[in-house]
């Protein structure tokens, strides 16, 4: 890795002292290189605003009315590629899902790594990061009360203690992979959104953006699981190429490096994209969106059974498990002859 990227965003120490560990902190905003003053803005023009659901729906008499999907994120694109019916359950039907201990721990670790950069560079240590965990856990429970059910059957708190210890181990491992004292991210937990010429809106949240003194951009994503085997690395990079495409369309800058930091296994996966990569991803996303739109219009959402079905919360509604999907909440039209929605996606 060349030094300009390795030290992207590096600054000398001497920043102001932050507030008490665990206290709410505003995330600093910084402009990335490019013709615009900020990397992203939502529909109201506010950079860094939190994203809403891709099929945002108003509350009506205590229930949420379904509307057609209006944008695409890496997660929802992945859902459709994994199983079109899963995409429908999550985006259109918006069926509830049980909180996951692994996913919740990932959210907690992400919050800790984000907040650590509020401290001066010299104070970004593993003990300080671990000290942030209790406060961030309290904040997470306040914002998402449903996660308390994860430990409802844990009266003595042993499972919770073990779960928090694993979060500490993941945070500690990060310090063996990156040196936060040498980094000053341009952005953290950055919401980005771009509308392509076709009208397709892409949106998502980037964990960290580093900018080298030379202006080169590195996009970093933390993963609390283990790195995939080499034959599956392309799938893991899809999310990062998605973000790189959004940055390119917003700023006219192709990120110099994409970096996946796997805290579960202690691996770092990097990829240096070129313009052809982003153009290829854009074509794939257009084909994917065409398939989603046709499935939305026809109501034909086909299940795609895989070994991942064992972790799905929606087996009771899935025909592959003898279930019945809820009534389709959107108007439908007759399917076009010979054009199955799920068969339109081209290769990456």
From TrEMBL:
A GO molecular-function descriptor: helicase activity
Renumbered residue ranges of the record's region Disordered: 1-62
Keywords: ATP-binding, DNA damage, DNA repair, Helicase, Hydrolase, Nucleotide-binding
The organism's place on the tree of life at top rank: Bacteria
A Gene Ontology biological process term: DNA repair
Occurrences of domain PD-(D/E)XK endonuclease-like (ranges): 71-319
InterPro entries per the UniProt record, alphabetical: PDDEXK-like_dom_sf (IPR011604), PDDEXK_AddAB-type (IPR038726), Restrct_endonuc-II-like (IPR011335)
Amino acid composition bias (Low complexity), ranges on this chain: 33-60
SUPFAM superfamilies membership: Restriction endonuclease-like
Record keyword Magnesium present: no
A Pfam family reported for this protein in Swiss-Prot or TrEMBL: PDDEXK_1
Name by which UniProt lists this protein: Recombinase RecB
Top-level taxonomy: Bacteria, Bacillati, Actinomycetota, Actinomycetes, Kitasatosporales
